[in-house]
Structures are given as C-alpha cells and as structure tokens.
Design brief:
Length: 128
C-alpha cells in the first residue's frame, strides 16, 4: 500500500490549457480555448509577433471571460477580441499576438493575422 501511495504521489498533475482556434475577420478575432481549469481565463493581446502592451479593447472592455460577449461552457471558452467601433477594433491585414492564462496554468500564446479588406468589386463590369 505504501508503494502505491508513492507511485501516485510521483505522477505529475499537469494542467492543460490550449488555444484551439483563432478565427479572424477584418476587425475582430474569435479565440477558442479548451482548459481543465475551473477559473476564468485572462487574455493579453498586442499588435506584432510578441507582447508589448495590451490593446485598447482589453483596457476598455475587460480582459477576462466575465466581459460581455465572452462565452464559457464547461471547459470551452470563447472570447471575441476587438469590437466594431473606434479604437477597440483590430486593424485589417495586421499581425497580432494573443496570450491566454486560465486558473493556475501557465500562459499559452499564438500569433494570427486579421483579414484584409477587399477593395475590388466582384461584379462584372459592363461596357457602355
């Protein structure tokens, strides 16, 4: 019995938080997280390929799952970064870094690019 106790005590208990997907538009990005942590997740994001300072959206509207628009269903967390107004919107065709930490897990991060704005029309041009 003592041997079983030491064997179970030696098994590490790893937490598991991961960014499953990032679905960017021209002004927003939906971030999907899976975690085994019961606590809310905290988000950091900045423009570029590394963290420099939080985006205006996170400063103005909150940076956790408790903000409006964020969804939590058991171990799945959905967070929309960027809004469709003013300084809180993401810039089109730009690179962003995002980091997420849930509960006691260490931060996981990813880099994504927002979609570009299509300027050309897709309709056929008729001659006069």
């Amino acid at each position: 019995m003592r041997m079983l106790f030491w064997l179970l005590a030696a098994i590490p208990c790893f937490a598991n938080t991961s960014i499953v997907s990032i679905e960017p538009t021209q002004m927003q990005a939906k971030i999907s997280i899976i975690t085994d942590q019961p606590a809310f997740c905290t988000y950091r994001a900045s423009r570029g390929t590394a963290f420099s300072s939080n985006l205006a959206d996170l400063n103005d509207n909150g940076n956790t799952d408790t903000r409006a628009g964020a969804l939590v269903n058991a171990n799945v967390h959905l967070f929309v970064l960027g809004t469709r107004k003013g300084n809180d919107a993401l810039a089109a065709a730009s690179t962003y870094w995002v980091g997420v930490s849930c509960g006691s897990d260490t931060e996981v991060s990813a880099v994504f690019v927002t979609r570009s704005i299509e300027w050309a029309t897709r309709l056929p041009i008729r001659s006069i």
